[in-house]
TrEMBL record, chain A:
Biased composition (Basic and acidic residues): 32-50
One example of a Gene Ontology biological process annotation: peptide transport
Name the UniProt record assigns to this protein: ABC transporter substrate-binding protein
Organism: Tissierella pigra
Limits of the Solute-binding protein family domain: 94-437
Signal peptide coordinates: 1-23
From TrEMBL, chain B:
Protein name as it appears in the record: ABC transporter permease
Naturally occurring in which organism (per UniProt): Tissierella pigra
One example of a Gene Ontology biological process annotation: transmembrane transport
Family: Belongs to the binding-protein-dependent transport system permease family.
Entries under InterPro entries matching the protein: BPD_transp_1_N (IPR045621), MetI-like (IPR000515), MetI-like_sf (IPR035906)
Transmembrane segments: 12-30, 96-120, 132-157, 250-271, 291-314
Amino acid sequence: MRKISLLLVIVLCLGLFTGCAKKNEVPEANKTEDVAKIDSEPEVSSEPKEGGTFIASVSREPQTYNPDAHSDDGAYPVIQNIFNKLVKINGYDQVVPDLAKEWEFSEDAKTVTFHLQENVKWHDGKDFSSEDVKWTFDQIIKEKGFASASLSDIEEIICPDKNTVVFKLKGPNSGLLGYIAWFGTYIMPKHIYEGTDWLENPANQSPIGTGPFKFVEHKSGQSVTIERNDEYWGDKPYLDKVVFSIIPEQSTAYQAWLNGETDENKHGVPANELSGFENNPDYVIYDKLWPNKGYIHFNVNKGKFADLKVRQAVAYGIDRDEIFTKALKGIGEKAEYFISPLYDWAINEDAKLPERDIEKAKALLEEAGYKADDNGIYFTTTVDTYPGFDDIVEVLKSNFKEFGIDLQVNAMDDAAYDEKVWFGRDFELTMLGGYQGPDISAIGNRIGVGTSMNLGEYNNPRVEELLKQGVILSSEEDRAPVYKEIQKILSEDLPNIFLYEKGAKIVVKSYVKGHPAGEAVEKASESEYTYIWLDK
Amino acid sequence: MRDYIRKRITTGILTILFSFCLTFFLIRYAPGNPIKVLAGTENPNPELIEHLTAKYGLDKSIPIQFGNYIKNILKGDLGYSYMSNEPVSKLIGEKLFATILLTLTGVILSVIVGTFLGVYAARKAGSIFDRLMCSACYVFDAIPGFWLGLILILIFASKFGILPTSGMYDLRAEHQGFARVLDVVKHMILPVSTLFIIQMPMYFRIARSSVLQTMSEDFILTLRAAGMKENKIFNKYVLRNAIIPTITKLSLSLAFIISGVALIEIVFAWPGMGRLIMDAIMKRDYPLLTGVYLMISVSICVVMIITDIIYALIDPRIRLE
């Protein structure tokens, strides 16, 4: 009996390996071929071909297509193709024109005037005008939409004519344009939403936008379909249709992509599979770096890390190289400074994260009054995390142990984390990350008093002053010294210890041209498929 | 018999009420806040949180929320999902067909094949077939469905390319009519096989052991001693007595049919109820969760009552108790 069971186990395991073989074969088969397109512009091929259906897998189901009321990561890729903003963020994290073809600030920087595209129509055929823009922003502010807190400097919006919108500000704010370009600021159709509850309007389930694609249908749990908007005011899309296939499991989505059932996998390729796609002419790899640092965030008011010496010990004790190579598999960058390397004009070379020095870390803990026990452990603490940091905290755990802190990991789901850490502020240290752009002033959301990501309630009056100055000034030359001083203070106060710069290697099938991470990087937002065409 | 049914229905209704109250309070007292989920993890806007908390009445105490919910539900209104603002009944309705299609097919296949093999193995107890099946079932029983599903995908979709990886329809082809039905069947093969492989062993073992047990009872020995033919003893007396545990297990499976099979649905991107429930839990979508739990407890009670009636019909001893 036991022998038979054993046999079955072996047969099943063999099944596993034969299954896996495919994954390794795909790249292997092509290794000898000479074409290597990695990180280079693919050769210019023939004229773009029109038509075809593009299938992209997404992990989460869109809940609502109201693009401004609240955040919905599931709907985000769809919304980018249906709606426009005044200005948008391209693949280089720059602010580029969208519905506003140009804009200018007044002398005192308290007024910004947007000149809109002409002959823009909503998907239902009605004319778009500056009134839609005014209504959208008024509504976001009135109904407390996702972006309302970032738009609080707007005093009044006026529409001198059909194609011009003027934003009057309470004071100069050079970060505002970035927020208008970022998220939760898509222009919505006034004629459909006015006078209704924008959370309950039926258009939330069949959206009307001005974007390159029109909404067709959403099959619950399965797919979302959009089709080309033939009346589009801008560059017309090549694709007939885009279908977003909802595949929650990452491994399944990856297989569906390899098997050709999908053309694009928004989950991305698992890090340990990446090497297989290099030197493979069927795929192109694009490097992407976001203004998005991952970091340890301390409670600077309560608990053991309220003591600066203990935070310094951590800064010396952790091994950022190990985190980068082991936990991040070398994707993105190791953090060196207190600001994203994308803002290279503002980097303060003197405010650098320290190199690892375990002895120094231990000495600092002793200075702080801690005594090591027989195992060399000074104290035990807990890091609270939400999903996404599992590999990183594993490395941190062993790093911490080496300089004498026993780090326990309390991994929670988002909702439980919010209750304990975001609302409750009940933590000693936690892990944070997320978009910190497109304007450099976005770091204010993480270190400014009372801001939404300053959970440890760091408060430095000089930083407050500098953050205010930073948004009043507009040229990079004037702003650089301000942000350099902020970095210097951060390196002294250490409310956060930065570990890495989030990046990705985006693997695109080579027959997919005009990808927002590739040829269309300057023109398209992250998941905008206007320029995609299929070369097959 | 009428008393018996009345008693069962009363117990059923009480069970539904009790489980409804329990789940209502349990999910609301559990840590987490649906409005914070709406605000997102990057730069959540405190104004938005305050505004929506008031709008959805979440600033009121939970007993008051309970009162409001009861008022609405008496009007037949299960409320609106916080996430999409669509009616809960619509969200549940959209998933019912796909869920039942998948789970019911899996259960029916498992119960028929499993029971048949179990009965056959019991009759040939000790044979090579019996020993082979028993050990195979132990192995299958120990396999996590999630893992098995991925392995089946790797073998049949990736390696041999004969079956689709996931989903319910071919998104490129958009078949119509009969071709569409065939398309769904093709997409069902892998998830149903996964369900079959992990559920069948249970029915096999139940059938086998209860047949073996019945065959060793005294009255069978008496029948044999009286010279009755082995086939007649088996078909007329053994099977009827041995089938009760299978019905119990089957009814349990049927009761949970509308709750779906979350892990299998996730692996195969099947648009079922299990995924809806997991999503609702992750996002603390209280109205949706309460609605789903209510539906599940009603379906469990209805199936249980029907099962009890079937018991009573098959085995008169039960209704006399």
